């Protein structure tokens, strides 16, 4: 069942997302005003080396005020497919190209206030390439044994939701 807003008003439009206020009538008859972040979507990549190390990044995230462990990921450009985004982001962020990409799944990280979808890929057959970070990306690249990365999630050292889910999806595919 599609619920069509009666009114949509943009509150903010940035380079990555748009914040809007939408007035709509819910299926129970209640009229509500909701603030929604409209996001173009993203791709996240689990880069797996032949020796079963995952190429992880420790990236500064100002919103949480700290460096956090993540798998590489990026926002879709206009007209770009999720797989094209994954192929672009992998060498840009970690300096590897992949011979093969396998889609692991898709998640909606914060459906309470955003329409963002993150497509998750496993990248294998990695070969070194040139890293090309954006000016605002501050990160370190570190290959971590898969078992260690999984333990880092249970110890609370990896707290990024897309990364935890990406590692979980990958372990399911490997069984």
Using brief descriptors, characterize the structure shown:
175 residues; alpha+beta; Nucleoside Triphosphate Pyrophosphohydrolase; 2 domains; 4-stranded mixed β-sheet; 3-stranded antiparallel β-sheet; 3 helices; 21% helix
Topology readout:
Elements: E1 7-13, E2 18-25, E3 31-38, E4 42-47, E5 53-61, E6 66-70, E7 73-75, H1 82-94, E8 96-107, E9 118-128, E10 139-145, H2 146-154, H3 161-174
Structure description:
The protein is α+β, with helices and mostly antiparallel strands. The protein has 2 domains: 7-38, no CATH class; 42-174, Nucleoside Triphosphate Pyrophosphohydrolase (Alpha-Beta Complex), CATH 3.90.79.10. It is built from 3 helices and 10 strands. A hairpin with a 4-residue loop joins strand 1 (7-13) and strand 2 (18-25).
Describe what is shown at a glance.
This protein is of the alpha+beta class.
Number of continuous helical runs? 3
**Strand portion, in percent?**
35-45%
Rounded to an integer, what's the Rg over CA atoms? 18 Å
Structural class of the secondary structure composition? alpha+beta
CATH superfamily of the largest domain: Nucleoside Triphosphate Pyrophosphohydrolase
Specify the CATH architecture of the largest domain: Alpha-Beta Complex
Q: Based on Cα principal axes, name the global outline.
A: elongated
What is the strand arrangement across the widest sheet?
7-4-9-8
Largest sheet: 4 strands, mixed
Distance between the termini: 36 Å
CATH topology name of the largest domain = Nucleoside Triphosphate Pyrophosphohydrolase
Number of strands: 10
Mean pLDDT across every amino acid position: 95
Number of domains: 2
Order of helices and strands: EEEEEEEHEEEHH
CATH class of the largest domain: Alpha Beta
- Taking pLDDT < 50 over at least 5 consecutive residues as the criterion, the unreliable ranges are none
Helix content: 10-25%
């Amino acid at each position: 069942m599609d619920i069509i807003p009666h009114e949509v008003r943009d509150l903010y439009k940035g380079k990555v997302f748009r914040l809007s206020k939408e007035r709509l009538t819910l299926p129970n008859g209640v009229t509500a005003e909701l603030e929604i972040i409209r996001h173009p979507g993203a791709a996240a990549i689990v880069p797996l080396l032949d020796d079963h190390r995952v190429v992880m990044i420790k990236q500064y995230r100002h919103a949480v005020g700290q460096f956090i462990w993540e798998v590489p990921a990026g926002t879709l450009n206009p007209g770009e497919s999720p797989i094209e985004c994954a192929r672009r982001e992998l060498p840009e962020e970690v300096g590897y190209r992949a011979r093969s990409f396998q889609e692991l799944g898709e998640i909606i990280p914060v459906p309470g206030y955003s329409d963002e979808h993150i497509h998750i890929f496993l990248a294998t057959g990695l070969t070194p390439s040139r890293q090309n970070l954006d000016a605002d990306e501050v990160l370190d690249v570190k290959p971590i044994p898969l078992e260690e990365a999984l333990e880092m999630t249970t110890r609370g050292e990896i707290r990024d939701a897309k990364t935890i889910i990406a590692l979980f999806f990958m372990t399911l595919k490997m069984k």
